Amino acid sequence: MPLPVLRIEKLCKSFGNTAVITDVSFDVIPSEVIVVIGSSGTGKSTMLQCINLLLRPTSGRIFLEEKEITAPGVNQDNVRRQMGMVFQEFNLFNHLTVLGNVTIGMVKVSGIPAKQAKEKALQELERVGMAEHCEKYPAQLSGGQKQRVGIARALGMDPKVMLFDEPTSALDPELTGEVLAVMQKLAAEGMTMIIVSHEMGFAREVADRVIFMENGTIEEQGIPDQIFSTPRSERTRKFLSVIRPGKSV
Amino acid sequence: MQAFYTMLQFLLPGLGVTISVTAIALCMGCCIGALMAVMRVYGGLVAKAIAVCYSMVVRAVPVVVLIFILFFVISEFVDLSPFMSGAIALGFASGAYQTEIFRGALLSIPQGQMVAARGIGMSRAKAIRCIILPQAFRVAIPSLINEVSLVLKDSSLVFVIGVPELMRRAQYASASTMEPLLAFGTAAFFYIMMTLFVSKLLEAVEKRFAISF
Amino acid sequence: MKEFLAYAKMALPDLLQGTVVTLELTAGALLIGLAIGLPLSLMRVYGGRLIQPLCTAYLTVFRGTPLLVQLFVVYYGLPEIGVAFSRMTAAFLTLGCNSGAYQCEYFRGAIQAVSTGQMQAARGIGMSRLQGIRHIILPQALRLVIPAWSNEFIAMVKYTAIVFLIAVPDLMSKAKILSSQNFAPIQTYVLVAMIYLVLVGALGLMLHVVQQKLAVPGLDFGMDKR
């Protein structure tokens, strides 16, 4: 068993008196692809934001390569740099070109010289098939193209793990394919990924492990075949029976 | 404290003048503004040109210059008190800004309203008066309230033609008590109170509008 | 008409001299206002509970009172407590502090118009809050603020017209002298109005060109104000 890249221990998050996540624990081993499923409002996105400390966990511990990142005094910016985050709403920097979006983190955060950053950025854009659009501004791209740039931006930082927060939810159905294809390619290349998604077909095909979340906690987890064919929990079964007819790809 | 009390006695009459000048100017500006906006949006070529020129020219010239020009022009023809000349000049200036407020409001009323009004047999003029303007006025209310505090502040400018409003009174007070800081500070205090009142009013109105829309 | 032209020809050199002072005052006040308004807006948006009331107080005072009152407090009032300025300094300071309050509000509006997702994404690639503000939020906000800022520029030209009341030799000051020397107030002030009209028109055109130059696709200037 290889050492986990990421270890989450008893993660809890509440806003005021409302507990959104309670007692979530799991490990992520290198190159593992985890897809988190569950109905809306069960804290999946909140969990992702806690993992890269965009939200401060209320309690619990998170380890990145054996180092506790929730310990006091840890440089949070440095932690986030090592985890790539892809947002549902893309959040591309509107004032920068596609190329600028990918290079700005490398230059301003990692301190890579501009010329080198540009070369690397072009490579990453090539990876997501967006290199020929590198001079365009976000407003000139389709949703799928934006999200591919969002992925390239995250890849540019050489993350140890990639977090995807419903990366295709804001896209028209005909545009989800190009984004999923890029993610599948990354998975094949051995990228470690945690993906919150409603794309059951994708989960089944690409995930090494599926986590089903309900009411802010992990209800059931396992390999896709087991979860989708013989779910142990009644709630999982219910969720899948509701979502499957329409949503499966 | 005694000094502040004396100061209040100096300034209070000016407060009344400031408020009256502002009120007259606002009413006048409202009439001009509504008329010019209708001319601008619904008028023919000539009416449109007049409205555009008026609004552009007046908004490009400092209010104090307008006050001087109108004060001297008016005194060529009729014998008006500085108070009335000042109020008219401010109203003339505010009219241009209110034209823009009303124009925005008129343009925000959907085309269908006019079509529907004509459809039930109203004339164009009647439709504007009975259907479009009442709606536009409601839309314009927040901006109009904002205009109140702008005109309130601009009213200090009629000082230059000798209207005994707050600033003029403050100047008397400053000269006779030799305490300019207290005099102008007290005037400032009055203005802050008035503009705060107006902005609270605006908040309240916006809250009501937020519910009703 | 002929009479007016002759008078204009005589008065114009003096008036143009005053116009230069008016433009100097405008530029100076805008710069001072920028130096005050931008940091103030950042404090208002990102500042803690201690700083925010201070900002609010500043804004209430400078936006809630007429510029004329501010000018008189600074020029006539402050010497009473031992803070005396020359006419020119008093004019620059008052106009600048006043503009700072308005610019603060324009910048605040622009900063808040940049979506929260932008900051999230900036933090997501490892930027600190400060880096996020500097590299992501401000570059966008500064573009968004251009229309409002252009209006402030034009408004400032007009605001300066009151400084003649403390005898700063601007356009109005010159006009006042000419008008009483020649007993020609109407001609003089109409001439002055025309000069302001030209100034405002020219600046409007210039700023429009600048806006076109700085445009970025998709970052539109949707917050035009009066």
Structure notes:
The complex is a heterotrimer of chains A (249), B (213) and C (226). In chain A, helix 3 packs across helix 4 (114-127), helix 3 (98-108) runs parallel beside helix 5 (143-155) and helix 5 packs parallel to helix 6. Chain A has nine helices and ten strands. In chain A, the strands form two sheets. In chain A, strands 6-7-8-3-9-10 form a six-stranded mixed sheet, with helices on both faces. A four-stranded antiparallel sheet of chain A has the order 2-1-4-5, covered by helices on one side. Chain A has helices at 44-51, 76-81, 98-108, 114-127, 143-155, 173-188, 200-206, 224-229, 234-247; strands at residues 6-15, 18-28, 33-37, 59-64, 67-68, 83-86, 161-165, 193-196, 209-214, 217-222. Chain B is mainly alpha-helical. Chain B has one domain (2-208): MetI-like fold. Helices cover 86% and strands 0% of the residues of chain B. Chain B contains eight helices and no strands. In chain B, helix 1 (2-42) runs antiparallel to helix 7 and helix 7 runs antiparallel to helix 8. Chain B is elongated and about 70 Å long. The mean pLDDT of chain B is 91. By secondary structure, chain C is mainly α. Chain C contains nine helices and no strands. Mean pLDDT of chain C is 91; it is low at 221-226.
The gist of it:
Chain A contains nine helices and ten strands. Chain A is α/β, with parallel strands linked by helices and 249 residues long. At the B-C interface, helix 3, helix 6, helix 7 and helix 8 of B face helix 2, helix 3 and helix 9 of C.
Key terms for this structure?
heterotrimer; B: 213 residues; mainly alpha; MetI-like fold; C: 226 residues; disordered C terminus
Shape of chain A: globular
**Rg over alpha carbons of chain C:** 21 Å
Strand content of chain A: 15-25%
| Proportion of strand residues of chain C | under 5%
Helix content of chain A: 25-40%
Main sheet of chain C, how many strands, which sense, barrel? Answer: none
The third-level CATH topology of chain C is MetI-like fold
Widest beta sheet: strand line-up of chain A: 6-7-8-3-9-10
In terms of quaternary structure, what is this? heterotrimer
Encode the helix/strand succession of chain A as letters.
EEEHEEHEHHHEHEHEEHH
End-to-end separation of chain C in angstroms reads: 34 Å
Mean pLDDT of chain C: 91
Q: Just name the CATH architecture of chain C.
A: Orthogonal Bundle
CATH superfamily of chain C: MetI-like
Count, helices of chain A: 9
The two chains with the largest interface, and their residue counts, are: B-C, 40 and 35 residues
How many DSSP-defined strands of chain A?
10
Domains of chain C (count): 1
Class of secondary structure makeup of chain C: mainly alpha
The major sheet of chain A is characterized as: 6 strands, mixed
Q: Can you write the helix and strand succession of chain C as a string?
A: HHHHHHHHH
